Amino acid sequence: MPALVLLGAQWGDEGKGKATDLLGGSVDYVVRYQGGNNAGHTVVVGDQKYALHLLPSGILSPGCTPVIGNGVVVDPSVLLSELSGLQERGVDTSKLLVSGNAHLITSYHATLDKTTERFLGKRRIGTTGRGIGPSYADKINRVGIRVQDLFDESILMQKIEAALDFKNQVLAKLYNRRAISAQQVAEELLGYAEQLKGYVADTTLILNDAIDEGKVVLFEGGQGTLLDVDHGTYPFVTSSNPTAGGACTGAGVGPTRISRVIGILKAYTTRVGAGPFPTELFDDDGEALRRIGGEFGVTTGRNRRCGWFDAVIARYATRVNGLTDFFLTKLDVLTGWEQIPVCVAYEIEGERTTELPYNQSDFHHAKPVYEYLPGWSEDITKAKTFADLPKNAQAYVKALEEMSGAPISAIGVGPGRDETIQINSFL
Ligand code: GDP
Ligand code: IMO
Ligand code: MG
């Protein structure tokens, strides 16, 4: 079972970092395949807490080689500061591999991200402001700068000039901002080149060879299924493909090599930024989920919007990702509710549907139809097996599994590595 994908089944922040770290001890490579430092993956190891943005969560497992694939957008200043932050805490980062084909996020991408959001006004996406969208836009427009360009000064300069040609017109004439100097950008980027050189590799070749040799490769998604630019709640999405297919394009590995796709699924739902969210709560229950679940952004510190579990979304994630397993996280957060509502369908203009509407305005008008499951009050954070859970918690998990269309193979009952109930092995 050499290649697994681990991805978010909702709108991100499902607990992918913890799940990846948990598997890190048993896998040879952990690969980020899309997104960039818009991600915020929290890993708790003993009394140490790490917040990773760009680096794969496998970096905390000594036997594991962390890889940044070609589909990721890399802000070199963030990469270097994340590396030095970990080194200062005694983490060995020397095994890191970075694809030479990954695109760079430069200072002008972050500037454009923030300026565009400001100009969108109330139609803004609520991006993380990290330059993700503008960098992917340049990639698709074929004016992007790649990691490998850092090592050829004259090509780098030509590419930056080409990229800034149009942008400077827009910045100066439309946004009334100062034009950006290509020379200054080049100097900044060249300043990173020497420090990054040792990490750059042909990661596609290395990963395919590893799979041939029977090594275990784990692809770690950023964001989540409903933030996918193709399959998410467009335009309120990120600019990449967190869904399973993204692992193939974002790492250069064919779909026939992937044997398992694990969807990380929170026992309730959260979302950061703008866009539709049918089960969102605006009452005391929403506030309680935020407080008990610690639902504040790892990257931007924003309050996460909170709501009940949505089975329509979970089923959709099973469909578009071909999920083989779920890892249900944060079940402990639901302790104490007398009954727990679960959205089993939507009502859209009087019609009931159990499938995610593919029409955007239908989704905006979707009203959740709830089923009410009995809650539990016992502390479950020490539970080690499924049988240790109170009967009502077991029934809640079983009901979610039934509704979601794939087996729940692990359950999170706390943020720590050992606060996990493993039902089926992932390997
Ligand atoms: P990611 O972006 O998917 O990696 O998730 P985040 O790290 O942004 O957010 C998940 C939060 O939940 C982090 O603070 C984790 O430490 C925490 N967490 C993960 N799994 C569990 C769990 O089973 N129970 C509890 N209480 N916290 C968890
Ligand atoms: P992890 O990996 C939750 C959201 C932003 C915004 C939209 C677009 O920690 O789950 P972007 O900066 O990507 O252009 O913003 O996507 N977003 C996330 N929400 N978790 C994330 O990452 C996210 N990364 C981006 O809030 O709504
Ligand atoms: Mg996160």
UniProtKB/TrEMBL annotation:
Pathway, per record: Purine metabolism; AMP biosynthesis via de novo pathway; AMP from IMP: step 1/2
Residues noted as binding substrate in the record, renumbered to the chain: 298-304
Active-site annotation: 13 (proton acceptor), 41 (proton donor), 139
NCBIfam families recorded: PRK01117.1, purA
Binding residues annotated for IMP, in chain numbering: 13-16, 38-41, 128, 142, 223, 238, 302
Protein name: Adenylosuccinate synthetase
Known catalytic reactions: IMP + L-aspartate + GTP = N(6)-(1,2-dicarboxyethyl)-AMP + GDP + phosphate + 2 H(+)
Cellular compartments annotated: Cytoplasm
Organism: Streptomyces spirodelae
